[in-house]
Amino acid sequence: MKAHLTVRDIAVLGMMTAMLEAVKFALQAIPNVEMVTFLFIIFTLLYGWKVLLCAFAFTALETVWWGPQAWVIMYLYVWPALILITYAVRHHAGVLFYSFLSGFFGLSFGALCSIVYLFIGGPYLMFTWWVSGIPYDIAHGISNFFICLLLYRPFMYAGRKIKASFFHP
User: Fold this and answer.
1) Which of 43, 45, 129, 143 makes a 20 to 30 Å CA pair with 162?
2) How many CA atoms are closer than 13 Å to the CA of 6, on its beta-carbon side?
């Protein structure tokens, strides 16, 4: 595992961040249907731990676009957690595991994000914020599961082809 970044790595991370922003923007009209979770899983499987930098760049761009709010803190631990889990199991899992991980991540997104409110307003605010979003978390989990289940194989196939041609001309 290389510990340094090459110019090529930086270019690839920039393209990944742009793709994350594009899909987030394209799907923003559909509540809790997103491909960011799916793409972080795919990118991590293809490019490893370096995708953490992409998560921080994505969070920075979202902050510039929407302004700093409590969700910025959430993004700083939620996306890296997903990337680290994916990285840890990358050699031992397949499409069903990643589909369930993606679905579980969507289902638990509100609970994970509510942690910030424990420090802002205490346990009551944390709990009520999480409970009020459960219907959205259910939709989020279901859509994440099916997005990953349906798109995992074609995206991995395309990603491997792109990576092979990009890194070994």
Assistant:
1) 143
2) 7
Q: Which domain holds residue 129?
A: 7-167
In a domain, 1, yes or no: no
111 closest CA partner among 92, 95, 88, 128:
128
Global model pTM greater than 0.85: yes
Do the domain assignments include residue 29? yes
Identify the three-state secondary structure at position 95.
helix
Q: Splitting the chain (169 residues) into consecutive groups of 10 residues, what average pLDDT does each group show?
A: 78 95 95 96 95 97 94 95 96 94 96 93 94 95 98 96 76
Helix, strand or coil for residue 32? coil
Structure tokens at 128: 């009520």
CB 58 within 8 A of CB 20: yes
We report the CATH number of the domain holding residue 143 as 1.10.1760.20
